[in-house]
Amino acid sequence: MQCRTHLAAALSIAAVAGGEEKPSPAFDYKAPPHSYWEREPQDVFSKLLKKMAAGEVKLDTTDEKSFARSVLAALDVPVSSQILVYSATSMQSERINARNPRALYFNEDAYVGVVPGGLVEVLSIDPELGGVFHVFNYPRPGVPPQVDRPTKCFNCHATNATQRLPGLIAESVAPLPNGGSYESYRGKEQGHQIPIADRFGGWHVTSAKPFGPSHEGAYAQTGTGGVRVIRIKPGEMSDLGKHLTRTSDILAHLIHEHQLGFDNRVIQASYLAREVEAHGAARSAEDEARLDDKAREVVRYVLFADEAKLPAGGITGDAQFIKDFSRNRRPVKSGAALKDLDLRTRMFKNRCSYMIYTPQWQKMPEIIKSRIYAGMKAALSGKDRAYAYLADEERRNIVTILRETLPDLPADWR
User: Fold this and answer.
1) 0.90 exceeded by the pTM?
2) Which position has the higher pLDDT, 142 or 227?
3) Rounded distance between C-alpha atoms, residue 248 and residue 236, angstroms
4) Cα dihedral sign, 266-268-270-276
């Protein structure tokens, strides 16, 4: 039984098939100075487990749906973030198919996967370790869940798709009825730069209006004439009543993809910085160049330099998800915030990721974070033509928001 899990992209955010192999870093997350398995995790779910053990938090074990809802509430993950995936790309591949999709939920810190009749999976982000993976059964009424950290999750979540670090993965495929994939539509990468036309194979997507061509609903149907790819609709082959809501919202999909790309890049930046710091006085010109290259990559991503275009006419997100997503927006005096949505030609009005408020960003080693902030400042100065897509007013808005909401900005930003 393989662990193709994302936990949110396939919570198993499953391993991506096809595409070019990315070069893996020259360091091992299990070995010093990283020592993944020796460090005590500081992710939100590990902290929740301590509260549960101390009797400070109790989950509702009445039934599967009550239990799943209580896990989400304890992690402050909105039910409206639900997206449904039916490709067998998880450690629970024998349970997941078009008749029994996995439901995935997320916020900025945690990704939760729920399989009806199966297990619950949680991937939460530790600022130093990256992805921390937990799997547990649906408990019997009155019995606490038995939680495990399975090493087999890393068979997919620490591969070339994540530069061999504990990260998040997603795929787009045409699933076969009994497991496996007939076709794959995207390479081993994650993030908002992936064209929408290449996304959503093996996923359900609900939307208030058409959102252009994609592989949403792709399903490889077998018959006497061989295999042909058809499209299935949400609820056509499965009972949506098994899930906490009936939506698999287009906006939730887009936000989720953005976060995957952000988290992976920040995880990689933190591991690289820690590796270089361990070199001490032996730090080389190659070390400096690697830090500079990674910082440039993160800056481009945080400022949406390569964001895929939205379909003509834009998209319309689910009203409840928009409300839940916006509940922790951080407005400045003008009223603007990084979570303000555009949805006409791009996701956000002010193109700087709201994920910069997360612990994984805030706790990045200074050796890489200072480079990123310097790159962001230069990009927002208006002098770098690579960022000419940011109009003057948008650049000013972003700078103002960062100044008023980020206390760790370097002094030269003030």
Assistant:
1) yes
2) 227
3) 14
4) negative
